[in-house]
Amino acid sequence: MEAQGRPDVRVRKVRQVHTGHENDLIASVSEGLLDSNVATLGYDERYQDGCCDENPPKSPGRAQDLWRKVKKQYDLVEYHVLPDYLRDNEYILRHYRSNWPLKETLLSIFTIHNETLNIWTHLIGFLVFLALTIFTVRQVPKEAVVPERLANLIQMPNRGDLHQLHVELVTCFPALANVPSFLQDHLPHILAKCVPDTPIIAANSTQQCFMQTMKDALGVELDMIVAGATRVPFLVFMGGAMFCLFSSSFCHLLSCYSSDLTYWLLRLDYAGIATMIATSFYPPVYYVFLCQPMWRHVYLTSISLIGVSTVAIFLVPAFQTAKYRPMRAIAFAAMGMSGIIPAVHKIVFFHHEPVCIETLWYEIGMGLFYLVGVMIYVTRIPERWKPGAFDIAGHSHQLFHVLVIAGAYTHYRAGLIYMKWRDAHGCVPGITSI
Predict the structure, then answer these.
(1) How far is residue 36's CA from residue 46's CA, in Å, rounded to a whole number?
(2) Domain residue spans in the chain?
(3) d(C-alpha 419, C-alpha 229), whole Å
(4) Binding of Zn(2+): at which residues (predicted)?
(5) Which fold has domain 110-140+231-424?
């Protein structure tokens, strides 16, 4: 008898065969038949994802099945249920991954959560800098810089006030109209004949010594005209930037896997930041102080030691906690501010060089990008103004990532200017600006 407002219950007999013997079992099976009032709500569990259908709909693809399985088994959680090692920003309230298996953690790079943009901003930045590195390596000094270098080369003997040597060198260059190929293929051999080891234009030993010195100096100039300034310092910076960007993206992707892995990933992330800051000094210091090896070695050695010391400090577990977030930012900022010393040195002694002023504006822009990024990182703006509103997109760490990439690209542009300058103006041994 069916009670009003309640689903009826049917009892049926089920015949079961067990070990060759037939036993009659009476199984009470509750089958809820929704009444008309519930049916009007449009809800029936039997039709949810095909769970109770006799013929569930086929999945449109394996990818969708996998995503549905991951979504059901490994839900995104809120901040208040996170383990301590994942609690970093209390103003981001939802969409956290926590203790996911490795496979699902790796696949989450293609899903939406509060780390998605953190992963992709620096991963895309890594790919951009990889492309820029390949492009820069494939470039050779432009032919436009060769006449400028050649003018300096021909005027070099005048510095020793040996007019006769100048006349002979000019006489030996009848094919100056075809400078690039001529210099690359023939000039070193002709120069060896024009400036022999035992010159005949003068017999005293003083002039012979000067002639040999000038020959060596001209040889260096010719090598730089053909090959240009070395790209090694520039590539060191590009390598440091790519290491920082990739390690950051890798850390954000896998940090939800386990506390032990996160412990080492954070150290890798800090090492990447310190490496990028340290290597950013290499292009300006090397190219500016190309003719002053003492200052070049002092500055490069100092910043390298500072970088290693910073990484060593961050190996202390206490510095990983959210409590020391301002301390980490101050340490990295102080590391970057140490670049003021070589920058001032450059301005004082090379203010007459146009490249000094041009690169200065780029370096100021780079510093502003990094400074604003650090301030946003420490203050956690804008999510602290409206917690939960920027969980997926627009929170401080994502803005910090974008500003880091902008600063690194600005520094890349300055490095190109330094290289072009040294392609056009080499360093003559024994002649310095300081």
Answers:
(1) 16
(2) 110-140+231-424, 148-227
(3) 6
(4) 252, 397, 401
(5) Rhopdopsin 7-helix transmembrane proteins (1.20.1070)
**Run of H or E including 23:** strand 21-27
Locate 19 and state its tokens: 């070990």
Alpha-carbon separation of residue 235 from 77, 133, 136 (angstroms): 42, 7, 9
Note if the pTM is more than 0.85. no
Whether 397 has a binding-site annotation, put simply, is yes
Reading the block at residue 300, the tokens are 């490069």
Quick check: 184 and 259 in contact, CB under 8 A?
no
> How far apart, in Å, do the first and last CA atoms of the chain sit?
108
Q: Is 95 marked within a binding site?
A: no
What is the Cα–Cα distance from 268 to 60, expressed in whole angstroms?
40
pLDDT tens, the chain, 434 aa long: 444 444 444 444 434 434 444 444 333 333 343 343 433 334 343 334 433 344 444 455 676 665 565 555 578 999 999 999 899 899 999 999 999 999 999 999 999 999 999 999 999 999 999 999 999 988 765 544 445 555 555 444 444 444 555 455 555 654 444 444 444 455 555 555 554 444 444 444 444 444 455 555 555 555 554 446 789 999 999 999 999 999 999 999 999 999 999 989 989 998 999 899 999 999 999 999 988 899 999 999 999 998 888 888 877 777 767 777 788 778 888 888 888 899 899 999 888 888 988 999 999 999 899 989 989 998 999 999 999 999 999 999 999 999 999 999 999 999 999 998 888 877 744 444 44
Residue labelled with tokens 């549905």 = 68
Residue 163 labelled as part of a binding site: no
Give the number of other Cβ atoms within 10 Å of residue 208's Cβ.
16
Q: Are the beta carbons of 220 and 426 closer than 8 angstroms?
A: yes
